[in-house]
């Protein structure tokens, strides 16, 4: 009978212990995953009560695991603090301070309150730094990037923190927008009235401030200007106003000299113009030779004079352009 009782005790101990160990494993996993909810606290209290009531029917491992819950909780809180100490503002979208604050809210232990204050302090510091970077950034592009980081992170904050930062964000945004408007106004003016000197001055400011987006827009304006200049040249060629192309060639040479190293492709513009002049000169020369020397072709003095005029105009333009570019 005693053997049966002993066996029965071993049986009961084994079953109770196995069930409670599984129960404790679930609680440990939840705490390690930062779950400090009321439900988990109640489960933890229940396990401790069970241990007190039927402790003599439990393995030592159960008692050990119950005691371990405290150390798991302490370790989790420490890791949380370290995570938010090193976390960047861009990480808040994934590791939301709002979610963590809600998990820590209303907990009576001083460790929870200390952690909540530490996280709140660090989060405020990150937002303040990001707004300061936006305001002091030399580059409008970088300032916009900092503001974007703040904007996306705002929704990850508890409501009281979000409201505290929202006004500062709006003030900083207004400051950056005003600064960017200076660039956009100058660019709009240049779009309406292109000016090589204006481009050069605005490009220098863009380069000094790392303003890549405005620089790219200037590049598009320059491409548009060059297309229009070439279009004007073709019109003058078709109207036999070769000498009038001097103004257009001077413009293109100016763009190449001032902007050739800034925008890819601008330097090739002159090569196209030079080829056009050479082709026109060759065509004029061939026409002159045919009209002057061919025995079966009657010579129209006026036509011959026009061809000769085109030929000499092209030659003068080419020579003058090579002098201007020191080629």
Give me the secondary-structure topology:
Blueprint: H1 2-32, H2 38-54, H3 60-86, H4 97-104, H5 110-136, H6 140-154, H7 159-192, H8 196-209, H9 212-238, H10 246-259, H11 267-293, H12 301-324
Give the count of helical stretches.
12
Structural class: mainly alpha
Molecular shape: rod-shaped
Could you list the spans in which at least 5 consecutive residues all have pLDDT below 50? 4-10
Radius of gyration: 40 Å
Order of helices and strands: HHHHHHHHHHHH
- Biggest pleated sheet: none
What is the count of β-strands? Answer: 0
Strand residues, percent: under 5%
Q: Which bin fits the share of residues in helices?
A: over 70%
Residue-averaged pLDDT: 80
Q: Could you walk me through the main structural features you see in this protein, from its secondary elements to its overall organization?
A:
With about 325 residues, this protein is mainly alpha-helical. It is about 80% helix and about 0% strand. The chain is built from twelve helices and no strands. The chain has helices at about 1-30, 40-55, 60-85, 95-105, 110-135, 140-155, 160-190, 195-210, 210-240, 245-260, 265-295, 300-325. The N and C termini lie far apart (about 115 Å). Residues about 5-10 have low confidence and may be disordered.
């Amino acid at each position: 009978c005693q053997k049966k009782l002993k066996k029965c005790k071993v049986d009961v101990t084994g079953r109770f212990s196995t069930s409670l160990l599984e129960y404790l494993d679930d609680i440990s996993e939840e705490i390690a995953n930062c779950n400090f909810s009321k439900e988990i606290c109640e489960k933890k209290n229940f396990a401790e009560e069970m241990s007190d009531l039927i402790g003599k029917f439990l393995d030592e491992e159960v008692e050990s695991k119950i005691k371990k819950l405290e150390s798991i909780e302490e370790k989790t809180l420490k890791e949380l603090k370290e995570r938010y100490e090193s976390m960047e503002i861009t990480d808040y979208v994934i590791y939301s301070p709002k979610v963590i604050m809600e998990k820590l809210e209303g907990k009576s232990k001083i460790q929870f309150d200390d952690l909540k204050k530490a996280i709140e302090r660090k989060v405020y510091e990150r937002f303040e730094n990001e707004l300061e970077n936006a305001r002091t950034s030399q580059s409008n592009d970088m300032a916009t990037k900092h503001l974007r980081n703040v904007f996306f992170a705002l929704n990850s904050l508890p409501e009281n923190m979000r409201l505290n930062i929202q006004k500062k964000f709006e003030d900083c945004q207004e400051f950056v927008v005003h600064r960017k408007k200076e660039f956009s106004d100058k660019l709009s003016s240049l779009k309406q009235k292109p000016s090589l000197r204006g481009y050069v001055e605005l490009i220098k400011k863009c380069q000094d401030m790392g303003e890549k987006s405005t620089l790219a827009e200037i590049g598009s304006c320059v491409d548009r200007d060059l297309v229009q200049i070439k279009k004007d040249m073709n019109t003058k060629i078709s109207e036999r106003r070769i000498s009038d192309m001097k103004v257009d060639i001077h413009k293109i040479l100016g763009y190449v000299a001032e902007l050739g190293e800034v925008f890819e492709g601008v330097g090739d513009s002159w090569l196209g113009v030079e080829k056009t002049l050479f082709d026109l000169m060759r065509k004029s020369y061939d026409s002159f030779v045919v009209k002057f020397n061919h025995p079966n072709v009657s010579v129209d003095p006026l036509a011959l004079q026009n061809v000769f005029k085109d030929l000499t105009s092209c030659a003068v333009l080419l020579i003058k352009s090579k002098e201007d570019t020191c080629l």
